[in-house]
Amino acid sequence: QTCALPIFRRGRIWASAKFRELFGLDASEPIALARILSHIQPEDRPRLLEALAANIGQEAAFDFECRVVRPGGDVRWILSRGEFERGRTAPPRLLRGASIDITRRKRAEEEAIRLNGLLIQAQETERARLAAELHDNLVQRLAAFSIELGLLAKRCPEKQSEEIAAQLKMRQDDVSALAVEVQRLSHAIHPELLRN
């Protein structure tokens, strides 16, 4: 829904039916800035007033988003863009622009942020699981295998032992190095989990 901004003339405000509908204003009630502001979320009012004040004295464009509380408590996001047109006299003669209901877009943005948070949380959970699996399972099994290789090298008969023992020692060193690398990887994946 898009509508024209209200027209400010000689201290009076005129607004279209669509503007009144967007801002939750009664179709026949006289409009004053205070009445429009009463429908805007209190947190958004200062920003709106600053945007108007910054541009009212010049022919400059303004752009603001605010939340409007409509009758019944429904909150809608409204984007308004416009500019003041000056007349021959000092105060602005006319405010030109439009307002549009951007509630669907804002809700989609909020949902995207929520889903992004869930995705990050799921990634962290999976990283923690992988890190724990690497650290608690694979590293322990590699360490046990390395120890077994060392014991096997010591039990080799002396006649064959030098060459076999050397081969077993090399494999033991390889397995130990692999265990260290897997442990480093598990810490890199999720270091805070493994420090606790």
Key traits:
two-stranded antiparallel ribbon; 196 residues; 6 strands; single chain; 4-stranded antiparallel β-sheet; alpha+beta
Radius of gyration: 35 Å
Low-confidence stretches: none
* Number of helical regions: 6
Beta-strand share of residues: 15-25%
Q: What is the total tally of β strands?
A: 6
End-to-end separation in angstroms reads: 54 Å
Mean pLDDT: 79
Pattern of helices and strands: EEEHHHEEEHHH
Percent helix among the residues?
A: 55-70%
Please state the overall shape, judged from the principal axes of the Cα atoms.
Answer: rod-shaped
Oligomer: single chain
Q: Give the neighbour order of strands across the main sheet.
A: 1-6-5-4
The class by helix and strand makeup works out as alpha+beta
Q: Could you give a short account of the major beta sheet?
A: 4 strands, antiparallel
Overall description:
The chain is an alpha+beta fold and 196 residues long. Helices cover 58% and strands 20% of the residues. It contains 6 helices and 6 strands; from the N terminus they run E-E-E-H-H-H-E-E-E-H-H-H. The chain has helices spanning 17-22, 33-38, 45-56, 103-154, 158-189, 191-195, and strands at 2-4, 7-9, 12-14, 61-69, 75-86, 92-101. It has a 4-stranded antiparallel beta sheet with strand order 1-6-5-4, sandwiched between helices. It has a two-stranded antiparallel ribbon with strand order 2-3. The longest helix has 52 residues, at 103-154. The model has no long low-confidence stretch (mean pLDDT 79).
